[in-house]
Amino acid sequence: MMFGYSDEWWVLLLYPAVLWVLFGPFAMASLGAWCASAPGPRPRLWSVLVPLGPVVTSAVVIVFPLSRWERPRRVDGALAPQQVYDFLGYLGVYVGAITLLPWLLGYGVTRLVRFRRSRRQT
């Protein structure tokens, strides 16, 4: 029983998603740097597996319940796809800005540094 209610146990499932907002960009930047500096499939596999838990956990909260995905009509008859806009915003911020962008920055900076060092040595 949490906070006086017996049905709030599912909130514990969201802790990985909240911690990912705080520490995910640092983890993804380090994984991107690892991918740029080490050859082989192992770093790339870890770059997919590490964010899989928090991203899927938060995606479940965004997608379900599926009844919200029904396309309600406004009074004037136009479709109101608010859930679609919410999901696109989630993809842009949580997946793009918190997960993908730091990986790309870590990968790009590491490749740039290695390129500059190799040019300087020749």
Short account of what is shown:
The protein has 122 residues and is mostly helical. It has helices at residues 15-37, 41-63, 82-121.
Could you estimate the helical fraction of the residues in percent?
over 70%
Structural class of the helix and strand makeup? mainly alpha
The dominant shape is: elongated
Beta-strand residue fraction: under 5%
Distance from first to last alpha carbon: 66 Å
Reported for the largest beta sheet, the result is: none
What's the tally of helices?
3
| CA gyration radius, whole angstroms | 20 Å
How many beta-strand elements?
0
H-E order: HHH
Report the mean per-residue pLDDT as an integer: 84
Spans of at least 5 consecutive residues whose pLDDT stays below 50 are none
Can you describe this structure?
Helix content is 70%, strand content 0%. The protein has helices at residues 15-37, 41-63, 82-121. Helix 1 packs parallel to helix 3 (82-121) and helix 2 runs antiparallel to helix 3. The mean pLDDT is 84.
Element layout with pairings:
Layout: H1 15-37, H2 41-63, H3 82-121
Helix pairs in contact: 1-2, 1-3, 2-3
Features:
3 helices, 122 residues, 0% strand, 70% helix
